[in-house]
Amino acid sequence: MRRFDIRRRGRQQRAVLSGALAALPAGLMAALAAELAAEAGAYFPAVYALTLALCLAGTALLARRGLPLVLAPDLGTACWLIYLIVISHGVTLPLLYACLAAAAALVWLLLRCGAAGRALSAFPPCLRAALPLSLGLLLFLWGAEQGRLLLASPLHLVMLGDFADPLAYFTLLGLLALLGLRALRLPPLAAVLGAFLVTALLSLAEGFWIVPPAPFYLPEGLDRAAGLFLRAGEGEVAALTGAAAAFPWLVAVLLLTSWGTIAALFPRLGRGDGAASGGVSAASEKAGLRGVLAALVAVNVLAALAGVLPLMASRLSALAGREGARRPRAFACGACAIFALLLFAAPLARELVSFPAALALLALAAGLSLLRRARLPRLRLVEERAAVLSLVLIVPLTYDIALGLSLSLIAYVLLRQLARRPVPFATRGLAALFVLLAVFAAWIF
């Protein structure tokens, strides 16, 4: 008979809890993405339910590959698609989903034949090493902005929020509680959970968000979202032109955003050597970069066919910690349980999004976790320093990983050529492709 080990059971419970904490903001982002799609004419309950169902399936699929990752809609990509492509340029939702399905299928083929892997390996080591730092700053600034600790300023880049604002007050209270619990030498997961509960319960007690009278209902109208791409040919010729112009950027965004997030969370896996960062299970060491990205892109093909905006590896998966990394399946169990609960709780999710102090706190905690783990090599050359500085500035300020990677690579290649140092052919070709894409987008849009 197997002997009961209380320490092993405690580690499994911490892994499950870390998965639940990482999945909660991902579920709330699903509600935000569904509201964005609803602004373009989609049916909110159907898009919300299908988004969470695919997040659940994708999280379980990546856990089988040994990675503690939670899938969630990328809000920056979703805003770009809805506001610029659909609303501004008149591309219909069915046509957008058809383009997304085709772009994801093309990325999958490029990954399977090895072309995309060779392109990603063309990024210099200094940029790959700077990804965790840039992503950590992105999460921290995004959490501070969502919690109104930082505000846009007409005179400066940002300014401190007004702490008479209840949202800023409760976010700051949660951050101080998190730092105080860590100062008391509580484990990171316990400190995050304690600060999250303090923020959520105090804001609930003060009435800044409420539990709706009917917090749960069954998903409905799934047929109004799934298969929407079949009506792609109903748009005008101008809509087809806008969709064709956006297609190359869809391919670049799907590939670079997925790779950039995974490379930041698991640096050794991001280098393509087939091993994940320290503490990740042996199964993930066998799951190479190409296989992980192919699985993620395959989920996005299904998402486009189901009428869902693109899903990426959630940056708040940084909350997984060491226990979640060592036990990805236990981590996925906690995440899938939260997704299954939120699947029937759209009114509750909308209410939580209306006062996002607890969500902002989790983003701040994930950002601090990534910043603590970031390690930069010694940068001896000017082009390396300029490229890393570009990446670390552009990604947090624009919330766009693909844009930061492309501009920093162009700067690296230009400065290295000016210094008459050798540049690999693949790196030069990738930088030239980014320049052509930028010129094409400026000409079309």
UniProtKB/TrEMBL annotation:
It comes from the Bacteria. The chain crosses the membrane at residues 43-62, 69-89, 95-114, 126-143, 163-181, 188-211, 246-266, 287-309, 329-346, 353-371, 391-413, 425-444. Keywords: Membrane, Transmembrane, Transmembrane helix. Coiled coil: none annotated. This is Uncharacterized protein. The lineage of its organism: Bacteria, Bacillati, Bacillota, Negativicutes, Selenomonadales.
